[in-house]
Specification:
By secondary structure, the protein is α/β, with parallel strands linked by helices. The protein has a single domain, classed as putative 2-phosphosulfolactate phosphatase (Alpha-Beta Complex). The chain is built from 11 helices and 11 strands. It is globular, with a radius of gyration of 17 Å. The two termini are 27 Å apart.
């Protein structure tokens, strides 16, 4: 059987996943700025699990079921305030630099973001769902190279309902590492597009952010601009989180 490689670029495509048979598909979810980077950072810093939810009401309902869990999430890039959450202040936002060991060690996090948690939930039903960002991309590639899936779908979180350049670049970087596995199979044009963009910008990811809506927005924000460099740092975490049947994201080392 020939292997199949495809990328979904934007949240507008999430709805199509519900109509597809994903039972033989491995999904890799990317939301570089910043949801998957924050999740991976939290797990690397000792968090037990992350429960991704769609919206604020679901986050509050899940908190009722898990009262010891921390609430994390953003709307319009900023930590969710009490005014948007029935008077409940969220403990953390969506800056990966917030998810330090002293905040998250041995804790469960309930997380809702504009796009990243939606992307994870959209991929539910796949044979497996892996969580990736630039910081753990080598670990994800290593895992996939060891046990190559016959069908690989990379799901980009995007920005609002549009594609996001930073996610496309990360998807292209993953494709570059895996290309020999899929070169003789079916490679969707979306994967070729991402690979070409990666080849153009791989030596200057920071420069590419001048063309990225999310990148420009974060760089213009005094307290969040450092998130961009943090999120673009490559291959520093040897952890591959995945979405478990109970709906939680948990991490394991690539070597295990």
């Amino acid at each position: 059987m020939k292997r199949h490689l495809e990328i979904l670029f934007s949240p507008a495509e999430f709805a199509t996943l519900h109509a597809r048979d994903l039972s033989q598909t491995t999904c890799v979810v990317l939301d570089v700025l910043r949801a998957t980077t924050s999740m991976i950072t939290a797990l690397a810093n000792g968090a037990q699990a992350i429960i991704p939810v769609i919206d604020i009401p679901e986050a509050l309902a899940t908190k009722h079921q898990h009262p010891a869990a921390l609430l994390a999430g953003e709307r319009d890039g900023l930590r969710i305030p009490a005014a948007l959450a029935q008077g409940t202040e969220f403990d953390l936002g969506n800056s990966p630099r917030e998810f330090t060991p002293d905040r998250v060690q041995d804790r469960t996090l309930i997380m809702t973001t504009t796009n990243g948690t939606r992307a994870l939930r959209a991929a539910t039903g796949s044979a497996s769902v892996l969580v990736a960002c630039f910081r753990n991309l080598a670990a994800v590639a290593e895992l996939l190279l060891r046990t190559p899936p016959s069908r690989l779908l990379i799901v980009c979180g995007g920005t609002y309902e549009e594609a996001a350049l930073e996610d496309t670049l990360a998807a292209g970087a993953l494709c570059a590492r895996l290309w020999p596995l899929y070169a003789d199979g079916h490679i969707a044009d979306s994967a070729s597009i991402a690979l070409a963009l990666h080849e153009r910008w791989q030596g200057d990811l920071t420069g590419a952010m001048q063309f990225a809506r999310n990148g420009r927005k974060l760089l213009a924000h005094a307290t969040l601009r450092e998130d961009v460099a943090f999120c673009l740092e490559r291959d520093v975490i040897d952890l591959v989180p995945d979405l478990h049947p109970d709906g939680s994201v948990r991490g394991s080392h690539a070597s295990t």
